[in-house]
Amino acid sequence: MQTLLFCDFDGTISRRDIGYSLFHHFSGGHNDALLPDWKAGRISSREVLTREAAMVSATQSEIMSFLGQFEIDPGFSAFVVQSRKNRIEPVILSDGLDFYIKYILERNQLGGLQVVSNVGHFIANGLEIEFPRVNRACRRCGNCKGEIIEEFCAQASGTVRTVFIGDGYSDICAARVADRLFAKKDLAVYCREQNIAYTTFDTFHDVASRLTREGYFSE
Ligand SMILES: [Mg+2]
Ligand SMILES: [Zn+2]
Q1: Is the pTM of this model over 0.70?
Q2: How far apart are CA 184 and CA 170, in angstroms?
Q3: How far is it, in rounded angstroms, from Cα 183 to Cα 197?
Q4: How remote is the CA of residue 165 from the centroid of ligand 2, in Å?
Q5: In the chain, count of helices (H) and strands (E)?
Q6: What is the pLDDT of residues 143-202, one digit of tens each?
Q7: What fold does the segment set 2-213 form as a domain?
Q8: What does DSSP assign to residue 72?
Q9: In whole angstroms, what is the distance from residue 215 CA to residue 156 CA?
Q10: Residues with beta carbon < 5 A to ion ligand 2?
């Protein structure tokens, strides 16, 4: 059976939520007012991201140099190596922005990973967000991870099982469709409330040893 493996980026691969940190920093904290409505599902990710981007006042070089402080999970690089040894190519699904994900991955020699995300464009003294993907049904997400996982499954030949690893509210739709779920922080709280089965983890070392024990990884 083929395994399809999907990972969230912000707060899962990156130790901190870079999208949140970036908008918080460059909006002078004004973005925080939007978050309660978003977490409660009253406004969509698209609306939040569009409004957050409108609050940003910074040049491209200011934004890019802000990214220098962020680290990735200490087990993630080894996790990618091990996945590939087992002929599984991890795919990153993000409701964040392409430019900082690519920057952080490349800085960690992980630039070859496939990323499905929203797109950020630098404009004079700010940012503009583009949503290249059209969600079929979801009105909550910018880039619905649950729908993307279903599309990958539909394109695969033969039987597949899906694994998803995430940490937050942008992972809710993925958590509902994944066969095997690893969750921490807000996503773990949500899954407990909704009776969605998951395994919690601290780092990707934990995920790797669990997947090995369960036979997803044989090497
Ligand atoms: Mg996250
Ligand atoms: Zn969704």
Answers
A1: yes
A2: 13
A3: 9
A4: 16
A5: 10, 6
A6: 999 999 999 999 999 999 999 999 999 999 999 999 999 999 999 999 999 999 999 999
A7: Rossmann fold (3.40.50)
A8: B
A9: 20
A10: 138, 140-141, 144, 173
Buried b (16+ CB within 10 A) or exposed e, 138-162: bebbbbbbbbbbbebbeeeeeebeb
Q: How does pLDDT run across 24-67, given as a tens digit for each residue?
A: 999 999 999 999 999 888 999 999 999 999 999 999 999 999 99
Say which residue the tokens 């036979």 belong to.
215
Q: What average pLDDT is seen over the chain? A: 96
**End-to-end CA distance of the chain, in Å?**
16
Distance 163 CA to ligand 1 centre (A): 16
Cβ atoms of 149 and 178 closer than 8 Å? yes
Query: What count of residues does the chain have?
Result: 219
DSSP code for 135 = P
